[in-house]
Amino acid sequence: MNVQLLKTFITAAKHENFHKTAEELFLTQPAITKHIRRLEEEMKIELFERKGKSIALTEAGHYLLPIAKKMAAQYDKGLAEFELWKQGYNRKLVIAAAPQIASSVLPAILRNFMDGNSDIEVLINVINSYKIGEEISSGRAEVGLTRIEPTISGVACQVIHEDPVILVGPAEEKEQLFNEEGMLKKYRLITHNHPAYWDSLLNNIRSVYPMVRTMQVNQMEISKKFIEKGLGVSYLPYTLVEEEIKQKKLREIQSDKIMLPTSFTYLLTKVETKEAVSFITFLKKQLIKHI
């Protein structure tokens, strides 16, 4: 049986309209009608009732629909496995990672892992920390790396890294002004670029420096660029700014009055495949070396 006919049938059943089906599949409406007629001829039974411009599944169509979905999914899975084989892979690992993690410690760790596991295709989905728990729960990813502890049930969660938060400012600032109080008076404080600690930290800062001026920037990478250009200062996890400090693009500012928080990296799993276990074991060893 032609799998394209089954996919047309599944899409038509979803929309109950040939025109919308044609739009989704980028085909002409006559082509959709032809697909359905060919499938009905092969099955020797009508699958849709025609009602003007609308269509509705017949009893046979309702019975066939879940079977067709399974057949199409199995076909797609087999095709994906064949593509892996062609590229020299025989295993796959999907990792959902928060942007802050994907742009800091993850690249070097991934490079070393992939060098030692060339038969594993690694797919990285960069997703907001709040959504990573859903990715793991639904099975769309096997490993999740996030900055916040998930509230979703059925997902295993463990802290795999604790990162000190530091105050950073522009590297070119004059030395005599390079202290927490002076920098917070001179520059705007860039806030809410981390999903976990900013509300409590900002309350703490305002209790000590009530006149502090703030600017919300919800991306850490953008925050770093803003700081480099002299637009502000911010409290950021050390690993996120480590390279910039080494390259003298940013400078650490000693905090003497503010109790600084800790940024946690959480590892999320649901079903630990062999590929996931291999990566998690490697990840923990690499983080210990990094610390």
From TrEMBL:
Family: Belongs to the LysR transcriptional regulatory family.
Listed InterPro entries: LysR_HTH_N (IPR000847), LysR_subst-bd (IPR005119), WH-like_DNA-bd_sf (IPR036388), WH_DNA-bd_sf (IPR036390)
Entry protein name: LysR family transcriptional regulator
Residue intervals of the HTH lysR-type domain: 1-58
Keywords: DNA-binding, Transcription, Transcription regulation
Pfam name, any one: HTH_1
UniProt-recorded Gene Ontology molecular function terms: DNA-binding transcription factor activity; transcription cis-regulatory region binding
Superkingdom in the source lineage: Bacteria
The species this protein was found in: Niallia nealsonii
